[in-house]
Design brief:
With 274 residues, this protein is an alpha/beta fold. It is built from eleven helices and ten strands.
Length: 274
């Protein structure tokens, strides 16, 4: 397992299991399957409604807590200084954990709320209740506001990133500021059929003797982007983790780079209605 080092010295596994839209029952089974397959990084959020089931799976796995990296997120309606702290305590209680490894603001919902929420995250971090903090679905101008007005530079930025939306400019900004970029929807979510039908991805799948999803995941790893593919199917969970026995050469990395369309599947952070 490859790990990335955050700017506070904490290590984060480069591949994790995403659990968006996973029911409680599916999330429980998926997490147990993933942990058995070697995953040590699990990503959830309050709004997913599966924190309690994931916490139970973590407990039932009998894997030492220190070996795991658990992320959860602050939902939009809970943003604000006091409400952030309350929401975090609820998530921690549902997960049945003494701390999480990463706590993220889920979406940008205005500059004032962002700062109030982030200052609460900073205090939770200083208290040791979360080992790293960051933001999700933020653009450069949103992160600049955090950096200019808060004490701790975000450790992680989680954003939609895949072959059709590659975020090279955003990653360059993150690198300049020691922020680790993390990709959700790496397999293009409900648009996965577009990726599977792509001739370049089909060609590389044959060349490397790997599935197209494995190529897409490894391409992000080779960019040093943390990736959290989501599945509740045992065979796919296992396959999505079987990506550490090959590397994509530079010419092929450039071929995939040529597939960038700037195609966003999820809302622009400045225009989120929920």
């Amino acid at each position: 397992m490859i790990q990335v080092k955050l700017h506070n010295g904490k290590f984060m596994p480069i591949v994790g299991l995403g659990t968006w839209k996973s029911s409680k029952e599916d999330a429980y089974r998926a997490v147990l399957t993933a942990l058995k397959a070697g995953y040590r990084h699990i990503d959830t959020a309050m709004i997913y409604g599966n924190e309690e089931a994931i916490g139970q799976a973590i407990k039932d796995s009998n894997i030492p807590r220190k070996e795991l990296f658990i992320t959860t997120k602050l939902w939009n309606t809970d943003q604000g200084y006091e409400t952030t702290k309350q929401a975090f305590k609820k998530s921690l209680q549902l997960l049945g954990l003494e701390y999480v490894d990463l706590y993220l603001i889920h979406w940008f919902k205005g500059y004032e709320k962002s700062l109030d929420s982030y200052r609460a995250l900073e205090e939770l971090y200083e208290e040791g209740l979360t080992k790293a903090i960051g933001v999700s679905n933020y653009n450069v101008h949103h992160i600049m506001n955090i950096i200019e007005n808060c004490k701790i530079i975000p450790h992680v930025l989680q954003v939609e990133t895949h072959i059709a939306l590659q975020n090279h400019f955003l990653q360059d900004y993150c690198i300049e500021n020691n922020i680790q970029m993390e990709a959700y929807a790496p397999l293009m979510s409900s648009h996965i059929t577009e990726m599977l039908a792509n001739p370049v991805m089909q060609e590389l799948s044959k060349k490397y003797h790997k599935t197209i999803p494995q190529i897409a995941i490894r391409w992000l790893i080779d960019r040093n982007v943390v990736v959290i593919p989501k599945s509740v199917t045992e065979s796919r969970i296992i396959a999505n983790f079987d990506v550490f026995d090959f590397q994509i050469d530079q010419k092929d990395m450039e071929k995939i780079k040529g597939l960038n369309q700037g195609k966003k599947l999820f809302p622009e952070p400045d225009n989120v209605i929920y």
